[in-house]
Amino acid sequence: MYFTCRVSSLNASLAEPTDYALYLTANGKTAGQPDAIWKNGDVSTVFSGFNWTGNGWVSTTEGTALLISNGAAINIGYNPFDSSAYSTTTYPFTISLTYKTENGTNSDEILISSQASNTGFNIFSNKVSFNVGGTLS
Questions:
Q1: Total of domains in the chain
Q2: 8-state DSSP, 108
């Protein structure tokens, strides 16, 4: 049995968006310096538990990165799933994160979370879970 497929061209162009609701980058941060200011527009990041010698801004082969270790944490004051502030039904969105984990010992610990009213996501060292009123894993 044979099938015939007709392939037509797709005229599409892909480009990195320029109208971010939130964009945080480590570019411009100096490794080893105690710099707890990381913001974009009105959105600020709260740093806690950093000693800026064993964690904080570090140099990597990819550039400067934020090392969060030894009980340190950040809280970015932005939640795209908060329907009182943002409409996810009118304006769909994309979330792009670049992160790396090493030497994790607890696969049940949440590394990154964004939740509001039982909607959002949790990132663990070995999985991602999405909540959409119920739970999908």
A1: 2
A2: T
Q: Does residue 114 share a domain with residue 71?
A: no
Q: Distance between CA atoms of 48 and 53, rounded to whole angstroms? A: 14
Indicate whether 54 belongs to any domain: yes
- What's the confidence (pLDDT) of residue 126? 86
Summarize pLDDT for 72-118 with one digit per residue, the tens.
999 998 888 777 766 656 666 778 888 888 888 888 888 999 888 77
* 40 and 67 co-located in one domain: yes
Alpha carbon distance 14, 107 (integer Å): 35
C-alpha dist (Å) from residue 112 to 11, 45, 101, 108, 121:
36, 14, 11, 12, 8
* CA distance linking residue 22 with residue 41, whole number of Å: 8
Distances (CA, A) of 126 to 98, 101, 133: 15, 10, 23
Backbone angles phi, psi at 71, to 5 degrees: 85, 0
For residue 49, tell me if it sits in a domain.
yes
Q: Is residue 1 part of a domain?
A: no
Number of H helices, E strands in the chain: 0, 9
What pTM value is reported for the model?
A: 0.72
Question: Which residue segment(s) compose the domain that 74 sits in?
Answer: 22-78
